[in-house]
Design brief:
It is a single chain. The protein is 39% helix and 18% strand. The chain is α+β, with helices and mostly antiparallel strands. The chain has a domain at 52-133: GMP Synthetase, Chain A, domain 3 (2-Layer Sandwich). The strands form two sheets. A three-stranded mixed sheet has the order 3-4-5. A two-stranded antiparallel sheet has the order 1-2. 10% of the residues are buried.
């Protein structure tokens, strides 16, 4: 009589189009609804890959850039190019400007920008805004 060695391999499961990877393993029939936006899917994937904080910082910086363009209504996109929203780290937003006159104008809008970003993304998203000249 021959004995078979125990198999430690998991049985193969064929994945169907209704399977959705949730980060905790493949789960059947948990695919997002058709109403879920592509941005939400990117956020889920970024969070799974450990990049959720970076994606959040990019969203805040992009929104800050859009808000800055509303503070200077007479200026074109080319005229605002010397103003750069650089980073968001530890709730501190870093913005650089090409010259001191732009830096002075940004100083006058600093509190309004911080208030609007916190209203959109939640309290304490931006605790401080650092303004610097580009070197």
């Amino acid at each position: 009589m021959t004995t078979q060695k125990p198999s430690f391999k998991k049985p193969y499961k064929r994945h169907t189009s209704n399977d959705y990877y949730s980060g905790n393993g493949l789960q059947t029939n948990t695919r997002p609804t058709k109403d879920a936006s592509f941005q939400n899917l990117i956020e889920v994937a970024a969070a799974h890959l450990g990049m959720g904080d970076q994606l959040y910082a990019i969203r805040v910086c992009h929104e800050a850039r859009k808000l800055l363009s509303t503070y200077f209504p007479g200026k074109t996109e080319g005229e605002l190019s010397p103003i750069k929203v650089v980073s968001l780290k530890d709730a501190t937003l870093l913005i650089t400007a090409a010259n001191s006159s732009l830096l002075h104008q940004l100083t006058m809008h600093r509190h309004l920008l911080q208030t609007e970003l916190n209203a959109k993304f939640g309290q304490d998203t931006v605790k401080k805004i650092n303004l610097r000249t580009q070197s």
